[in-house]
Amino acid sequence: MRILISSCPAHGHLLPMLPLARAAQQAGHQVALLSHPSVGGLAPFLPLLPAGPSVPETLAEVMRRSGVDARDVPIDESAENAQQGPIDFFVHARMDLGAEQALAAARDFAPDLVVADIADLYGPYVAAALGVPWAAHGASLPFNEQLARFFEAATIERFARENVHFTGPVAYLDPWPDLLLRPSDVYPAPRIPVRAQPHAGDGPVWQRPAHGERPTVLLTLGTVVEDPQALGGALDSLLELDVDVIVAPHAAGDLGGRTPDPQRVHVAGFVPMKDLLDSGVDVVVTAGGAGTVLSALSAGVPLVLLPLGLDKPMNADRVASVGAGTVVNAPGEIAPAVAEVLAHRHYAEAAARVADSVCSSRPAPAALDLLIETALTTRKSR
């Protein structure tokens, strides 16, 4: 089978899909990635079909059209803002800037099945245009009901402009474990749980330098840090405690010019999350991105969350609701929150329960088998 993986060009969208892509390749399927070249290096084992704009180019286009910075609009905002933020970004700007290129690349690859991240429209678009089934991959939590309606209506209207009839997904691959879900979560297709896995990379395993006996805190605000002052302020707060800190900024400038004490702080840079967690981490401090949250909890590590826009407040709320972490509102609140988590065992115990829930989901090969069975059954019935 020829399987096309389609993703918005952002680490948090693509990385959670890679275990499924690897499983497909290892099972003998032909797999390709449809996305912008800026993320091609995250999946060197996949042929890249370049299509569409980068994230900065898309943000600039939205700003040019509406004057709105799409990063600043939470995805559970009012209907009006939802249209101005996520829908302008994912539907209007990305489709206008890259749909034609995406369809041409997909037509050449001739997929039998498309798997698209939940916010990507190139995958559903080329699947509908080529008459093949597609599945959604939900690295983030499912859209709330109001945003889902607006998103689908905008998608149908935008596809119609290209004379393409939108077809819904045949399945929804969901790495969020049952313990973090709620009855109010609504899925656009039958849910296939797939086990969340920390990103493992393809190069040599990162090794943590020698360290002492102090607790270790991993500080990462994600792969895109729009506010270096927040990361630097978080580090300043942590250094009030008797802990070692691993800082994983995406770029050297993210620390706001600080040169931390190497006896207590190791600046790792962009390192695969699996390597960071395997190095011995007691608490993760994060902005609440889905990839970091699921990676930490899959390893049973509790969190302190400083949610910074988009879906991060929702993710943080789910973690706090099961007792696997605590939420703060400013960098200066991080030190007492970390001290609280280190001092009370119930946070780690709750994180371990979530880890058990993660392990109960299907591993990627089993989820792939069920997806292919579902896709083939759906295709025969049409």
UniProtKB/TrEMBL annotation:
This is Glycosyltransferase family 1 protein. It comes from Kineosporia corallincola. Residues 235-366 form the Erythromycin biosynthesis protein CIII-like C-terminal domain. Transmembrane segments: none annotated. Pfam families: EryCIII-like_C (PF06722). The lineage of its organism: Bacteria, Bacillati, Actinomycetota, Actinomycetes, Kineosporiales. InterPro entries: EryCIII-like_C, Glycosyltransferase_28, UDP_glucos_trans.
